[in-house]
Amino acid sequence: MSIVGASVLVASAATAHAEPAYPRLGADCAPDFIGAMTLLPDEVTYAACRDVDGSPVWAAVQTPFEPNDTWISYGPEITVHGQGMRNPNVTSGRWLATPTEPPTDPPTVCRAEQETVVEAGVLSEPQVSESDPGSELPVEFLPRLFYLTLSGNCLWTREG
User: Fold this and answer.
1) 129 and which of 68, 107, 139, 160 could share a cystine (Cβ 3.0–4.6 Å)?
2) Are strands 55-61 and 70-81 parallel, antiparallel or unpaired?
3) In this predicted structure, what is the pLDDT of residue 105?
4) How many domains does the chain have?
């Protein structure tokens, strides 16, 4: 799935010190985000941007679900799981993180922190990939990925 020209997550006045806007169940989402998922701040509720009666809105997703190829991070960290865990949220492979609109001040940094399974009960040291402010981040989500922490106002899309 490829999404081009991502637009506003939630309408808000953005300032350098404002609390980041985040998706809310039932709230509008950008039409370009249809199919994208995120994890809400309660760290339990997964949401997807879905077309409901002709309007794109954030809707709760029942778990478990098939791994999704498009994710939204909205500033604070969201932690999802890869194929090193039962019922993964994402699959390994080449991904691209793109800052979402509107631009933030200071410009957003897309960041991925990955921990993989080394052996039963043992995880690797975190591997961090980070974009330059306001820039895209091509990143390889590793095989045996256990924890994946995404941050920044970014659209994460699996390539290929």
Assistant:
1) 139
2) unpaired
3) 86
4) 1
| Cis ω for the linkage preceding 88 (within 30 of 0) | no
Residue range 97-113, pLDDT digits in tens: 999 988 888 999 999 99
pLDDT for 26: 95
Residue 151: give the domain boundaries. Answer: 31-158
Cis peptide before 103 (omega within 30 of 0): no
The whole-angstrom separation of Cα 56 and Cα 157 is 19
In angstroms, the CA 81 to CA 117 distance is 11
> Is 26 exposed, middle or buried (CB count within 10 Å of its CB: 0-12, 13-18, 19+)?
exposed
Q: Is residue 44 part of a domain?
A: yes
Percentage, residues of the chain above pLDDT 90: 81
For residue 60 the two structure tokens come to 């709760």
**Tokens for 78?**
């969201």
144 Rama class: left (phi>0) / alpha (psi -120 to 50) / beta: left
How remote is the C-alpha of 32 from its chain's centroid?
A: 14
